[in-house]
Write a structure and sequence with these properties.
6 helices
């Protein structure tokens, strides 16, 4: 093999190797924080347990992921006064300002998982007021924009309106330009759980598995976005 052949062969091999090498993806240099919000008036019950299952699964995706559960049960949160935000004098401060908002703004989480029980095939009143009060994170800029968020719902029946609740919450989140994600096969839209075992939601194996898949999907999206 002469020198010209050697050089051209070497260059071709190098180009082929480069083409077959996947682009490097730098690992996030900081922790990636995912917050789960349980919007049930029943503190520590089925919705909170489902959110915890999703968060535990999310934490297992990567060692840099940190999770936190915000349980709204027992908190006093008023609905929006119509365009008013928590910064306005006309919106009296309550548990949203004192307990919830600091966990969503200082700093803004890298991902969200929101859960609600299904009441008459709709989200809970507590979930609705929580979503209304998130308006404070839309001004002066959209603080939740491009953050991945997944949704789960718990119903008294297997087909008790869970997917309707998920759609309602997702529609509200889109107002923040959030990147709504579903789960994986079996939970494409979000996690659906059935409270058929006297509040022991862990006995709903299908539902808990869908919650875990949702948590994994949110975590994977949060890690990818944190690399950018």
């Amino acid at each position: 093999m002469d020198r010209r052949t050697f050089v051209s062969t070497g260059l071709a091999a190098a180009a082929l190797a480069s083409a077959n090498t996947p682009p490097s993806k730098a690992a996030p240099s900081r922790e990636v924080r995912i917050v789960g919000v349980a919007c049930s008036p029943r503190k520590g019950k089925t919705t909170a347990t489902a959110i915890r299952a999703a968060l535990d699964a999310a934490k297992g995706v990567d060692g840099r992921i940190k999770v936190e559960l915000v349980d709204l049960g027992g908190l006093q949160i008023a609905g929006s006064l119509g365009g008013a935000t928590s910064a306005d004098a006309q919106q009296p401060k309550d548990d949203f300002d004192l307990t919830v908002l600091p966990k969503l703004r200082d700093p803004v989480p890298d991902g969200l998982i929101i859960g609600s029980p299904s009441y008459f095939r709709s989200m809970s009143a507590l979930c609705k007021v929580f979503l209304e009060r998130l308006a404070v994170l839309r001004s002066p800029k959209l603080l939740l924009a491009d953050k991945p968020a997944g949704v789960l719902a718990v119903g008294a029946y297997r087909n008790g309106g869970q997917e309707l609740v998920i759609e309602q919450i997702q529609a509200a989140l889109l107002c923040h330009e959030i990147m709504v994600v579903g789960g994986k096969p079996g939970a494409h839209q979000g996690a659906t759980l059935w409270n058929a075992y006297n509040d022991d939601i862990t006995k709903d194996e299908f539902g808990i598995e869908s919650a875990k898949k949702l948590g994994i999907r949110v975590a994977e999206a949060a890690i990818r976005l944190a690399r950018q």
